[in-house]
Amino acid sequence: MLIETTINAQTKNYLKEHKLAELIKKIEFDREYIVQIFNFFTDVAPQDIYRFMITYGIIEENLEAFYKKYVKPYYPNKHLEEMFENA
C-alpha cells in the first residue's frame, strides 16, 4: 500500500500495485499511467522495489528490462541501477 500512495500522490487516475506488477511482468508500458510508472522508478526506495518484486513475483530481468526500455532514457536512477548490478 505504501507504493500505491507514493506513485499516485500527484495523479487523478489511480494505478493499483497489482496492475503495475502486471505491466512490469509483461514489459508493457501504459501511457495512461506514465506519471505513476515514472514515480515508481524514481520515488520508491530500492528496498521497497525489491519487496514489491517479491510480493508480486516479478523477476529481476523483467524489472530491469522495463526500466531500461521505458524509464532510464528519461529518468535514470543510479540507486536502482546499483541494485541491478549487485544482484
Provide an overview of this structure.
- The radius of gyration is 12 Å and the shape is globular.
- The mean pLDDT is 94.
- The chain has helices spanning 2-7, 17-26, 34-43, 46-56, 60-71, 78-85.
- It has one domain.
- 66% of the residues lie in helices and 0% in strands.
- The chain has 87 residues and is mainly alpha-helical.
Please outline what is shown here.
This protein is mainly α. The protein is 66% helix and 0% strand. It has one domain.
| Low-pLDDT segments, ≥5 res | none
Structural class: mainly alpha
State the separation between the terminal residues, measured CA to CA: 25 Å
- What do the pLDDT scores average to? 94
Q: In the residues, how many domains can be counted?
A: 1
How large, in whole angstroms, is the Cα Rg?
12 Å
**SSE series:** HHHHHH
Overall spatial form: globular
Q: Which range best describes the helical content: under 10%, 10-25%, 25-40%, 40-55%, 55-70% or over 70%?
A: 55-70%
Largest sheet: none
Counted beta strands: 0
Question: What amount of the residues lies in strands?
Answer: under 5%
**Total of helices:** 6
Secondary structure layout plus pairing:
Blueprint: H1 2-7, H2 17-26, H3 34-43, H4 46-56, H5 60-71, H6 78-85
Describe the structure using short key phrases.
87 residues; mainly alpha; 6 helices
